[in-house]
Automatic annotation (TrEMBL):
Domain (Aldehyde dehydrogenase) ranges: 18-463
EC number from the UniProt entry: 1.2.1.71
CDD domains given in the database record: ALDH_SGSD_AstD
Record pathway: Amino-acid degradation; L-arginine degradation via AST pathway; L-glutamate and succinate from L-arginine: step 4/5
InterPro entries registered for this protein in UniProt: Ald_DH/histidinol_DH (IPR016161), Ald_DH_C (IPR016163), Ald_DH_CS_CYS (IPR016160), Ald_DH_CS_GLU (IPR029510), Ald_DH_N (IPR016162), Aldehyde_DH_dom (IPR015590), SuccinylGlu_semiald_DH_AstD (IPR017649)
Catalytic site positions: 251, 285
Protein name: N-succinylglutamate 5-semialdehyde dehydrogenase
Binding-site residues, NAD(+): 228-233
Organism name: Fluoribacter dumoffii
Catalytic activity: N-succinyl-L-glutamate 5-semialdehyde + NAD(+) + H2O = N-succinyl-L-glutamate + NADH + 2 H(+)
One Gene Ontology term of the molecular function aspect: succinylglutamate-semialdehyde dehydrogenase activity
Biological process (GO), any one: L-arginine catabolic process to L-glutamate
Family to which this protein belongs: Belongs to the aldehyde dehydrogenase family. AstD subfamily.
SUPFAM superfamilies the UniProt entry points to: ALDH-like (SSF53720)
Length: 494
């Protein structure tokens, strides 16, 4: 394993400086080995308040800076990430446990986000002037103000970056709280912002758990850009129920279906089902949780091959040689909770085809689990963020669509089928923010919107459409000189 001396955290990043925090100890643990490798502190309420004042103070100069200057800072940031890509990939892998090959794809996404967000800013929030007989009708966009970004652990660099870059380009200033599971990656990313020369106060990073998150949300902020679970998203929505003036962009979980239909290439179906279900140890919001398979000999063949493939994948710590396909879940505690969830499903009527098991004590390393849910009455509509796959068998395509729609979530839905008519039918009857045909449910395109309906989101998709929730449109009717109209309204004599 790569050297695991314990790094000392720099503290909170407030007003362009690292402030050694006064709060409680926060530790980061590599879940593949179960060892602490980073130790820092959580932000105190006072530190949160100081960060808020810094962000508020920085707002006017930042939001009135010309767009190109703001974009230049983000480009400088991208260059620094490029220069330190190996260091960042190693840290992502060390902190989340995901294999190095996958951590590198996350770094690519961070870098790619800059130019895509600049393009999206122009396309979705470009100023426009239309000349009318009376005046110029001008459309321009303004930033919301000081916004809070709350990050999830599964893509500690990429997902927060997906809110931060568009928010900065639009002219907002930021209070950022990464996941408590991934403080070290956040600190590394903040140091890159620091080195990019970003003016003090434009971005501030406060470490900690729910307590820190709540303290941030109690400031006089104008927006919350959140990625995380439905339960937390709902709490945040309730907390702001008496503040409709605060914009909330809530990117939440999914209970995503994937239908296997008529396909000639069964190997491709099996391989792409594996990518849909087990990549990142099932810790992607886009992972297919429910695989809907025909109750036929072809369906049996698919299921047998899928079970065989799942049993043969390499699972291990991020730096194992040769490289594993799948690492651990984020912590040993989470692994135990997932095993408990599996047991609850089995106790309530699911038939285990393969059991998800803890592979090494004190780690988050789990083997995949597969449960047949076909005869389960009223299966739970819950996201288990783990390498746990539920199987449903169907007798005709209409039934497959009905099963796919049995969820209140609506993030991703997928179909593997060589029948185009079936895809059209599936598309028409499916309610989800992402609908894929013969592609894994995972691996979203940054050039498209990314967000769900139902319990998966609040209709403010991220990725290419993040520009929309980072700025509001201002309509101005403008004429350079105030003058009388050619004709006054009746009843007025000037
Ligand atoms: P989580 O909801 O536990 O935490 C997300 C963030 O919110 C963390 O920073 C956490 O500290 C903070 N938080 C928790 N409670 C809070 C509160 N009351 N007030 C303020 N902040 C609070 O989510 P997680 O476990 O980090 O991530 C996994 C979840 O994220 C899964 O449900 C997954 O589907 C979802 N996710 C969604 C997307 C998407 O784009 N739709 C992407 C990735 C992950
Ligand atoms: C996620 O954000 O959890 C997954 C995104 C993806 O699969 O590309």
């Amino acid at each position: 394993m790569i050297k695991t001396s314990i790094f000392n955290g720099k503290g909170q990043y407030i007003n362009g400086q690292w402030v050694k925090g006064q709060g409680t100890i926060l530790e980061s643990i590599n879940p593949g080995y179960g060892t602490v490798f980073w130790q820092g502190t959580s932000a105190t309420e006072q530190e949160v308040a100081e960060a808020y004042h810094a962000a508020q103070h920085a707002l006017f100069p930042w939001s009135t800076l010309d767009f190109q200057s703001r974009a230049n800072y983000t480009q400088k940031f991208a260059q620094l990430i490029e220069k330190k890509r190996h260091e960042l990939a190693n840290l992502i892998a060390l902190e989340t446990g995901k294999p190095l090959w996958e951590a590198h794809t996350e770094v690519n996404a961070v870098i790619g986000k800059i130019n895509l967000s600049i393009q999206a800013y122009h396309e979705r929030t470009e100023a426009k002037v239309t000349q009318t007989a009376e005046a110029n009708a001008c459309l321009r966009f303004k930033p919301h103000g000081v916004v809070v970004v709350l990050g999830a652990f599964n893509f500690p660099a990429h997902l927060s970056n997906g809110h931060i870059i568009p928010a900065l380009l639009a002219g907002n200033t930021i209070l950022y709280k990464p996941s408590e599971h991934t403080p070290a990656v956040a600190e590394f990313v903040m140091q890159c912002w620091h080195e990019s020369g970003l003016p003090p106060g434009v971005i501030n990073c406060l470490q900690g758990d729910v307590t820190c998150g709540k303290a941030l949300l109690s400031q006089e902020i104008q927006g919350v850009y959140f990625t995380g679970s439905y339960a937390t998203g709902l709490r945040i929505h309730q907390q702001f129920s008496n503040k409709p003036e605060v914009i909330l962009a809530l990117e939440m979980g999914g209970n995503n279906p994937l239908i296997i239909d008529e396909v000639i290439d069964l190997d491709a179906a099996v391989y792409n089902t594996l990518l849909s279900t087990l990549i990142t140890a099932g810790q992607r919001c886009t992972c297919a949780r429910r695989i809907i398979i025909p109750d036929s000999s072809q369906g049996d063949e698919f299921l047998n091959r899928f079970i065989n493939l799942c049993s043969s994948i390499k699972i291990g710590p991020f730096d194992q040689v040769p490289e594993p396909f799948m690492g651990p879940v984020i912590s040993h505690e989470q692994a135990l909770k997932h095993i408990h969830s599996q047991q609850k499903i089995i106790d309530a009527g699911g038939s285990p085809l393969m059991s998800m098991k803890l592979l090494i004590d004190d780690t988050g390393l789990l083997s995949p689990g597969i449960i047949d849910m076909t005869h389960f009455v009223n299966p739970p509509d819950e996201e288990v963020f783990a390498p746990l796959v539920q199987i449903y068998r169907y007798s005709d395509f209409e039934q497959a669509i009905t099963l796919a729609n049995q969820t209140r979530y609506g993030l991703v839905a997928g179909l593997f089928s060589d029948n185009e008519q079936h895809y059209r039918q599936f598309y028409q009857h499916t309610r989800a923010g992402l609908i894929n045909w013969n592609r894994p449910t995972t691996g979203a395109a940054s050039s498209l919107p990314f967000g769900g309906v139902g319990l998966s989101g609040n209709h403010r998709p991220s990725a290419y459409f993040a520009a929309d929730y980072c700025a509001y449109p201002v309509a101005s009717m403008e004429q350079p000189l105030l003058r009388m109209p050619e004709k006054m309204l009746p009843g007025i004599h000037v």
